[in-house]
C-alpha cells in the first residue's frame, strides 16, 4: 500500500504469519528499470513468499521490469489495474486500464513470455459508467487468455472522475456477489476477493465463494489479526501465541536494522496498531510516537512501549 507499507512492514507482518502472501506497494515499471533498485525492490529473505506489484501499461517496459523483479527473487508479479489516482491515470495505468482489456492482456503476455514466476492481475469491478457484468468479464477473459495465473478483485468500481483515491476505497459500494459470479464462471482460475474485510471471520466466510482473500487496511491497522492466519486459513500452527511473543521474536530484525544505522521509527511506525482494542494500546502508541522517533531510540523503547500494555493488562486483571 503506497505511502504505508515498505519492507520493514512486511518483515513485521511475516513474524505474524508464515504463510500469508505479502505484496509490495505498487512500483512503476519505469521506476524499476531506471530507478534506485535497492530502495524500490530491496527486501529481506524473511519476507518470502512475496509478490511485487507493478504499475504500467507499456508491455515492453513491463516485461523488462518483470525480468528485473524475478531476478531480485520475487515469488510473483502482480499488475495493478485498480489504482485510481490522477497521477496514475495520467500515465494511463492503474484502474483506467479496466477500459482497455486488450492492452492489459498484451502487458500480461509480454511479462509471461519473459518470466517463469506467476503473473497475476489486481483489478476493480469496472470504472465510472462501465457495466460491471461486462467490464469485469472482459478484463478477466482477456488477461487469462494472455496467460495470467490468477485474479484479485477489489470488489468495487473506481470512479475516476470526481473522487479522490481515498474516497475510491470507500465510496463506490462493495459488491462481493459480482466477484462470486466471476469465480463461479471461472472454476479453474484462482480468484481472490479484496475490499472491506475487517475481521478474519468475514474473510473466512468468503472462502465459500472464492479461492483467496486479500486484506489491506485491516492488516495494516490491526496487525494482531494476522497472528491467527496460519491456523485459520492454512491449518497450520500459528507462529506465536500472542502479540507479546511476536514482538520478542521480531527483536533480532529490529536490532539488525539499528546496528546497520537505521532508525527505530522506520520499523515501529508499522507497529502502532498492534495492540488495538486492548488496555494500554494508547500508551503503547504514545510511547512509540514520542520516544521511538528520537534518533537515538533503541530496542529499549519498543520494550518499554510493550510494558505499557502489560502493565495496563495487569491493572485490569487486579480490578477484575
Ligand atoms: C494508503 C493505501 C495505499 C494503497 N496502495 C495500493 C497499491 O499500491 N496497490 C494496490 O493494489 N492497492 C493499493 N491500495 C488499495 C488496497 O490494496 C485495497 O485494495 C483497498 O484498500 C481495499 O481493501 P481493504 O478494504 O482491505 O483495505 C492502497 C490502499 C491504501 C489505504
UniProtKB/TrEMBL annotation:
InterPro entries: Aldolase_TIM, DUS-like_FMN-bd, DUS_fam, DusA, tRNA_hU_synthase_CS. Pfam families: Dus. One of its GO terms (molecular function) is oxidoreductase activity. FMN binds at residues 53, 122, 154, 194-196, 216-217. It catalyses: 5,6-dihydrouridine(20a) in tRNA + NAD(+) = uridine(20a) in tRNA + NADH + H(+); 5,6-dihydrouridine(20a) in tRNA + NADP(+) = uridine(20a) in tRNA + NADPH + H(+); 5,6-dihydrouridine(20) in tRNA + NAD(+) = uridine(20) in tRNA + NADH + H(+); 5,6-dihydrouridine(20) in tRNA + NADP(+) = uridine(20) in tRNA + NADPH + H(+). Keywords: Flavoprotein, FMN, NADP, Oxidoreductase, RNA-binding, tRNA processing, tRNA-binding. Its EC number is 1.3.1.91. It comes from the Bacteria. The record marks 80, 166, 169, 282, 285 as: Interacts with tRNA. The keyword NAD does not apply. PROSITE patterns: UPF0034. It is an enzyme of class 1 (oxidoreductase). The keyword Nucleus does not apply. Residues 1-290 form the DUS-like FMN-binding domain. The active site is at 83 (proton donor). Its cofactor is FMN. Catalyzes the synthesis of 5,6-dihydrouridine (D), a modified base found in the D-loop of most tRNAs, via the reduction of the C5-C6 double bond in target uridines. Specifically modifies U20 and U20a in tRNAs. PANTHER family: FMN-LINKED OXIDOREDUCTASES SUPERFAMILY PROTEIN. Belongs to the dus family. This is tRNA-dihydrouridine(20/20a) synthase. The gene is dusA.
